[in-house]
Amino acid sequence: MINISKLRVDFISKGHSKKIIERVDVNVDRGESLVVIGPNGCGKTTFLHTVAGLNDSYSGEITIEEDRSKVALILQEIGLLPWKTVWKNATLGLDLNNMGDKSRTEELLDRLDLTKYRGDYPTQLSGGEKRKLGLVRALSVDPKILLMDEPLVSLDEFTREKLQNIILELWKEKDLTMMLVTHDIEEAAFLGERIVVLTSSPASVKEVVPNEPMGEVGFRRSENFYKTAQRLREALP
Amino acid sequence: MKSGISRYLISLLFLTLLWWLAAFIVRQVVPGPKSMVLSGPIKAFSMLFYHWNAIWPNFLRSALRLVISLLISVFLGATTGLIIGFEKPADRLLSPMIYIAYPIPKIVFLPVILILFGLGDLSRIVFIVLVITFQVALSSRDAAKNISNRHVKAVESAGGSRLQVYRHVVIPAALPAILTSVRISIGLGIAALYLAEESYTNQGLAYYINNSWKIFAYSDVFAGILAFAILGLGLYLIVDLIERIFCKWNYIA
């Protein structure tokens, strides 16, 4: 579904070239949930933005076997537009692509308890509600591939777990192919079928940790979950 | 709403009192007929009321010249300002031109404009547009420069085109700054309007005021000044209303 080979990214600033990504080779299968984990500042966000098509200056190959309109991205800062209401933010992707059917948005808002905020503005929402709205906006366009950059960063533990459960449910139910970038070990162990561990900057693949038994909310309390988390702790630089 | 109206009434009362006090002092200190030069508020308000039929056509003409100039300036200034602020090559190319042209006192061009565009409304409008457009362009440019990249990325990553980025991000994000520049433009515009209406015209509030000076009708001069204040206040209230409607998000605590 997503094939990335020999990906290398250099940023040129004021005449100096800085290597951000040394080399990353990753494949994501259809319906798979792949998590990319790495220390802060290792180039995870650049990696995801490059895959999402927001950065053109790279070498190597990125192939996505799906129409671009079927790829949704959730940014780390969410990027909700403060001048649009909750509803208008939720339907942004549909409006941009002239997709008329908004029933999916209605259903998602309802499911994530956001319907009562329809006419409100993003500044009136809590951190968790903003993240949920980001999720609704991304899923409204009925994507096949969902790319997420630290989608639950800076949330309290309780809200984060609740939203991880929602992401897991939606992934299974909507048959999504997911690629999630995080620096949170437990998030990676809970949401990743395979977990790619990146080195410190410039990023390259250090290790790929399989995590097959995931997929149920109860996995969080299982022995395998702790084993995966432990393995990630050891693998991380 | 009620408290808004009472705030305006209190301000009006306070300014009127200050004015009355100033006129009273001038009458006590300055000897002879010269003391009449600063007309008191009661006389001015009553002249505004009694001579409204004479003032009204002048008010309408001035208002029309100012509003048309404001609309043209906002369109030209905001469009160029937003493009300069948002597109780096345009910024590099055009910002120096604005910096060079902006500080030149536009009044020096008034005779040229009167010769080129004739003595009708067009020349007055061209002059006012010349005075205020740069200021709108600079404010819009700065607002566009400060637009958060995450909002742009949100639209781009959802498949938005450049034009859609302008529609969904650049314009709404810059709108409060543009409206602030419109408020400044109202003050600047009225000053420019006064200069533009001083000569070679037979209608407009500045014409009315100048004419009243010539015949020593001091109370009429101040009635004209009051009409200018009403014009400005009306325009400020309209801009506030537009902001309340289109920038609702900015009013949420």
Uncertain regions spanning at least 5 consecutive residues of chain A: none
Secondary-structure element string of chain B:
HHHHHHHHHH
Note the gap between the termini of chain B: 18 Å
Q: How far apart lie the N and C ends of chain A? A: 29 Å
The first-level CATH class name of the largest domain in chain A: Alpha Beta
Task: Explain briefly what this protein structure is.
With about 240 residues, chain A is an alpha/beta fold.
Kindly describe this structure:
The complex is a heterodimer of chains A (237) and B (253). Chain A has 2 domains: 2-66 and 144-235, P-loop containing nucleotide triphosphate hydrolases (Rossmann fold); 79-141, no CATH class. Helix content of chain A is 33%, strand content 27%. Chain A has helices at 44-52, 86-90, 92-96, 103-111, 127-140, 157-173, 185-191, 223-235; strands spanning 2-13, 16-28, 33-37, 58-64, 71-74, 145-149, 177-182, 194-198, 203-210. In chain A, strands 4-1-2-9-8-3-7-6-5 form a 9-stranded mixed β-sheet, sandwiched between helices. In chain A, strand 6 (145-149), helix 6 (157-173) and strand 7 (177-182) form a beta-alpha-beta unit. The radius of gyration of chain A is 18 Å and the shape is globular. With 253 residues, chain B is mainly alpha-helical. Chain B has one domain: MetI-like fold. In chain B, helix 6 crosses helix 8 and helix 9 (205-214) packs antiparallel against helix 10 (218-246). Chain B is globular, with a radius of gyration of 22 Å. Chain A binds chain B through residues 49, 52-54, 68-69, 72-73, 75, 77-84, 92-93, 96-97, 121, 123-124, 137, 141, and chain B through 150-151, 153-160, 164, 168-169, 172-173, 175, 247-250, 252.
Features:
heterodimer, A: 237 residues, alpha/beta, Rossmann fold, 9-stranded mixed β-sheet, 8 helices, B: 253 residues, mainly alpha, MetI-like fold, 10 helices
How do the helices and strands line up, and which of them pair or pack?
The complex is a heterodimer of chains A (237) and B (253).
Chain A: E1 2-13, E2 16-28, E3 33-37, H1 44-52, E4 58-64, E5 71-74, H2 86-90, H3 92-96, H4 103-111, H5 127-140, E6 145-149, H6 157-173, E7 177-182, H7 185-191, E8 194-198, E9 203-210, H8 223-235
Parallel strand pairs in A: 2-9, 3-7, 3-8, 5-6, 6-7
Antiparallel strand pairs in A: 1-2, 1-4, 8-9
Chain B: H1 2-29, H2 41-50, H3 52-86, H4 88-101, H5 110-117, H6 121-145, H7 149-157, H8 162-197, H9 205-214, H10 218-246
Helix pairs in contact in B: 2-10, 3-4, 3-6, 3-8, 3-9, 5-6, 6-8, 7-8, 8-10, 9-10
